[in-house]
Amino acid sequence: MTAAPLASDAAGGPGPTLLGQLLRFGVVGLFSAAVDLTVYTLALHLGAWTPAARTLSFVCGTSTAYVLNRRWAFRVEGSRRRALGFVVLYGTTFFVILGVNAAALALLPDGSWRVTLAWALSQGFGTVVNFVLLRTVVFRA
C-alpha cells in the first residue's frame, strides 16, 4: 500500500526532493531533539533513574518526530504499515541510543556537561541511521 505525497517541492515534482527532505528532516530533528532534551533534563532534575529519563524523553521526542516527519518532511499520508515501520525502526534505534548514552556516561569524565554530551552523542548517532531508514523504508512514496 503506497500513499501519494501530500504536496511537492517548489520544483514541482511529485514529492519532496532529497535536499528538501533532508532540510525538513533537519528542522524536525532539531525541534524533536529540543523536546527530547527538555524532557530528559526535567526528568533527571525531578530525580528519575537515568535509563527511565532517557526512555521517557525518547518517547516524547520520537512521537513529535513521527508526526512532523510524516506530514512535513516526507509529506506522505499515514498508514498502519508506515506507523508500524516507524515503531519498529525507532524501537530498534532506541536500544542502540540507550546503549550509546550509557557507554558515553561511563566513558566521559565527570563534569557538568557530561550528561548533555552523552545525550547529544546518542542522539546524533540515532539521527543519521533514522534519516536513511525513514527515507528508504518507512516514508518512501
From TrEMBL:
Residues 24-139 form the GtrA/DPMS transmembrane domain. GO terms for biological process: polysaccharide biosynthetic process. Pfam families: GtrA_DPMS_TM. Keywords: Membrane, Transmembrane, Transmembrane helix. InterPro entries: GtrA_CellWall_Glycosyl (IPR051401), GtrA_DPMS_TM (IPR007267). The chain crosses the membrane at residues 22-44, 83-105, 117-138. It is a multi-pass membrane protein. It is found in: Membrane. One of its GO terms (cellular component) is plasma membrane. Belongs to the GtrA family. This is GtrA family protein.
